[in-house]
Amino acid sequence: MAKNVLQRKEGVIVGDDVLALFNYAQEKKFAIPAINVTSSSTVVAALEAARDKKAPLILQLSQGGALYFAGKGVANDKQQGSIAGAIAGANYIRAIAPTYGIPVVLHTDHCAKKLLPWLDGMMDADEAYFKEHGEPLFSSHMIDLSEEPVDWNVETTAKYLKRAAPMKQWLEMEIGITGGEEDGVNNEDVDNNSLYTQPEDIYNIYKTLSAISPMFSIAAGFGNVHGVYKPGNVKLHPELLGKHQAYVKEKTGSKKDKPVYLVFHGGSGSAKQEYTDAIGYGVVKVNLDTDLQYAYLTGIRDYILNKKDYLMSPIGNPEGADKPNKKYFDPRVWIREGEKTMSARVAEGLADFNTAGQL
Predict the structure, then answer these.
(1) pTM to 2 decimals?
(2) Would you give the end-to-end CA distance of the chain in angstroms?
(3) Which residue in 109, 232, 255, 257 has the most C-beta neighbors within 10 A?
(4) What whole-number distance in Å separates Cα of residue 323 and Cα of residue 311?
(5) Residues with catalytic roles
């Protein structure tokens, strides 16, 4: 069981526990879903599913999701809104996660070059938290410089890993572009060849970063696309991940068949077999966002449609002109319906990635 390899069994885990969890995931051939959260409501929906399915979980905040956590009305011209929202979200997750009795990796999602001030602000908070508590505020961050020249991508990622290493903080990076559109980053028109990473690039990254810290993962492109598309429209080639692992093992002489911790981006809408194949090649984290956004909507949508006649005015419904409707329009009622349907979709992902029952 995964809890047996962890020092901290529940709540936000950091450092050696994150490394131990990812090693265990590779050994037992499961991946941990990374759920984009934007509010306390989406956090709760994800945690409920993982608790009920006895599974570890990754909760992650994107730059836009962090801003939403702070409030869309706050200024963000210098990323101050997204920094404040990420810190607020992190502190909320740290406070509530132990209640659900599962280990949680607290992560931040894609940080492109133009968003580096956001990452800088969060790492300032990490270092301040580390001074007080002996661990960073966040378990891990993602830096995504995949649209930049490869050399600059690797060099800059290495600088951030050097900053993270003294805190034993995990860093995820991306090489090879993920297509589609997510959170304001649009790669719908990129050349398809850019969606596939080469083994030489993976080895170069591994060699550079492993000299600094073992606590890093690589989101390698194998045709990934953000969003949901009709089956057949996205050509995933997870077998490429196996070639990356074999190449790194050969070049380094590693005793591990899967020396690289890999990440699957653009997971929404993929076939279960594609997940299974990718996990078999050493993927330890699969991002889920678009499917969960839609799942959250469906519960609220169906409630509103089914209760329409009780929601047109504070008083008066089919049961009588003087009947109050507060119990129908109370936000705790209809938002809860969205939590239920999102939680069900998270549970489906936990089953697909073989995460369920691993605790």
Answers:
(1) 0.91
(2) 5
(3) 109
(4) 12
(5) 109
- The pair of structure tokens assigned to 15 is 């450092």
Q: Is 120 exposed, middle or buried (0-12, 13-18, 19+ CB in 10 A)?
A: middle
Q: Which residue in the block uniquely carries the two structure tokens 């705790």?
A: 332
Nearest to 240 by CA among 209, 204, 280, 272: 280
Listed as ranges, residues in the chain with pLDDT below 70 are 177-195, 224-235, 267-270
Position 136: which residue type?
P
Which tens digit of pLDDT belongs to each residue from 10-34?
999 999 999 999 999 999 999 999 9
> Does residue 341 sit in helix, strand or coil?
helix
The tens digit of pLDDT for each residue in 184-240 reads: 444 444 444 455 788 899 999 999 999 999 999 999 877 766 444 444 455 678 888
Q: Which residue from 260, 301, 213 is spatially nearest to 22, judged by alpha carbons?
A: 260
